[in-house]
Design goal:
The radius of gyration is 18 Å and the shape is globular. A hairpin with a 5-residue loop joins strand 7 and strand 8. The chain contains 6 helices and 16 strands. Helices cover about 15% and strands about 35% of the residues. Bound molecules: zinc ion (ZN). Zinc ion (ZN) binds next to strand 1 and strand 13.
């Protein structure tokens, strides 16, 4: 069993799906790689964004509920999504955000790197962090961002916690992360790899209120495992360490197990396979509504209630 290689995806709640699409695809240049529904609530979308093919470590997913109230940040949740941008790209992104009328601020020194802090249309904190770490992604050539400045998948995710020790122990002993450093109350852990989506930052917020879930809240973060066999080993290991872990769930594009880490954040371990080209070719990813076989019989009813989506960057 290999240690975890990094994040697989991050899933959050949104309100208006069109506004969500416009932001992630048109402004950030993340390709909509899958248009499907929430399998537990098929009258709502589940939208997946990533690089050209939705490489693990680039995948941001949303459940948009059009009338959902905004969430409130607090402890016990993932509170910010960090994307990596190439060293030297910060001016490109500052100019782009000004041009697109998106408010932001700049942080000069996040463990030595510069970062742009902004929010998505539902108030979810996003950070664009300059990084010289080598990363491999499949650039979306037909998207709005030139390859030299495109997001390089996730850099990090930040968890807000009352205390750090138990979560840190789980990252280290359960998932194979190593402690990197701390800066004030921010403690950084790194996955056992040198590619994408390597960092989990634990930010200590003692005595703060718990987060209230709503639009703009991160629902869970998923870690990568290669295949079903390795996932089973993680399931056994986590259960023997006393975690309450769900049985394996078929999410069509990967298989998932879930558990709540000691600080209250929902964690998932997801398989890299089968991936997003499972039910449509790479050139058409995201362009039509995909349903799992058990919902195909209800396609007409589902399409009737989903609001239409318009893409500025249709490919294929
Ligand atoms: Zn997930």
């Amino acid at each position: 069993m290999k240690p975890i290689q990094g994040l697989h995806h991050i899933t959050a709640a949104a309100s208006d799906p069109q506004r969500n699409l416009d932001f992630y695809e048109t402004i950030l240049g993340q390709r909509l790689v899958k248009t499907t529904v929430n399998f537990d609530d098929p009258g709502t979308y589940h939208l997946y964004y990533g690089d050209l093919v939705g490489t693990p470590g680039t995948i941001m997913t949303f459940f948009p509920w059009p009338n959902m109230r905004r969430g409130r940040r607090g402890i016990g949740e993932a509170a910010a999504v960090g994307y990596a941008i190439p060293d030297g790209s910060i001016v490109f992104w500052q100019d782009r955000l000004i041009q697109m009328d998106v408010e932001f601020s700049t942080e000069d020194n996040r463990f030595g790197d510069a970062a742009i802090l902004l929010q998505d249309p539902d108030g979810m904190p996003i950070e664009l962090i300059e990084s010289s770490d080598p990363t491999t992604i499949d650039h979306w050539g037909q998207g709005p961002i030139p390859a030299q400045h495109a997001l390089r998948g996730f850099h990090s995710v930040t968890l807000w916690l009352d205390t750090l020790d138990k979560t840190a122990d789980l990252l280290k002993d359960g998932l194979g992360y190593t402690f990197v450093n701390h800066d004030g109350e921010r403690h950084r852990y790194k996955a056992a790899s040198n590619d994408r989506a390597l960092y989990v930052d634990l930010l200590k917020k003692p005595g703060m209120n718990r987060g209230a879930f709503g639009a703009g809240s991160i629902h869970h973060i998923a870690f990568r495992t290669v295949d079903d066999e390795e996932q089973q080993e993680y399931l056994d290991l986590l259960r023997s360490a006393g975690q309450q872990v769900t049985p394996v769930k078929d999410r069509q594009y990967f298989h998932s197990i879930y558990f709540r880490e000691p600080g209250g954040v929902l964690f998932e371990v997801a398989t890299d396979a089968p991936g997003f080209a499972y039910d449509e070719p790479v050139e058409h990813l995201g362009s039509s509504l995909k349903l799992p076989s058990w919902l195909e019989g209800k396609r007409q009813q589902i399409e009737d209630v989903l609001p239409p989506l318009h893409r500025n960057h249709v490919t294929g």
